Amino acid sequence: MASQAQQAMLDKIITQKGFIAALDQSGGSTPKALKLYGIEESEYSNDEEMFDMVHAMRTRIVTCNAFSGERVLGAILFENTLDREIEGLASSHYLWQKKRVVPFLKVDKGLEAEANGVQLMKPMPQLDELLAKANAKDVFGTKMRSVVKLANHEGIKAIVEQQFAVGKQILDAGLVPIIEPEVDINSPEKAEAEALLKLEILTQLNLLGDEKVMLKLTLPTEANFYKELVDHPKVIKVVALSGGYSRDDANAKLAENQGMIASFSRALTEGVSAQQSDEEFEATLDAAIEGIYQASLT
């Protein structure tokens, strides 16, 4: 039975306009995220210092006036952020209680080596413990990523089956999974891979019982290609990843896809830096949020 907070979060995701901020760069992608923010690898000497710096960056973002539930529906965190506090509150509690932003947690442990044109998720033996921790901190849902490189039907079928199998484990824990089989934007077979991906996702959606999921997909080659998924009764929301497109390109592509909203990571923080004054930082972030918000309204 959903708690009052969970129900309020679900209502927000379903009814309100806005987008989801992806603030979930984990161990492997953190140095890159910090570098884009203007912090060089020479400025920290170990993982602990690195995670302190990235938490300071995220704290600066989410405590900004520009970052609030009016335009930002949700935010995806990774476990290290979930374990930390923002202004004296657990990060997830700060997001919801102070900002009315719905907290999600990245749960995957990275990718396997490429096989059959895809990268499956690594095993997650501790997933049940992580989901219990997420529940204890009033997290609404989860996110897990795998990657499609080529239009290989066997590989794509395996990737979608794995996503939905783990998704069921997450649903059983009372959380809403964001299922994210990313298609590489540089794939030479991007459109063909998207056709196979849509087919396999529809197959899995139709096998679900009463449960509903969210989907996070690469902006498609053909506008509105995923409209069938957007309109599917088992799908709460289809969110788009920027996948390496610049923010302007990602926004332009997103605006062509009705009913899809953004869940951008790098494209959200493009342009903000540690060196900016608070006023400059706020103005840059505000402009970024407004652009992504407008593109998510279509």
CATH C-level class = Alpha Beta
CATH fold title: TIM Barrel
Roughly what percent helix?
Answer: 40-55%
The tally of strands reads 11
Q: What is the CATH H-level superfamily?
A: Aldolase class I
What is the H/E string? Answer: HEHHEHEEHEEHEHEHEHEHEHH
Separation of termini?
Answer: 33 Å
Rg for CA atoms:
18 Å
Q: Mean of the pLDDT scores?
A: 95
**Rough outline:** globular
Low-confidence stretches: none
The fraction of residues in strands falls at 15-25%
Q: What composes the largest sheet?
A: 9 strands, mixed
Structural class: alpha/beta
Number of helices: 12
What is the domain total for the residues?
1
Per CATH, the architecture is Alpha-Beta Barrel
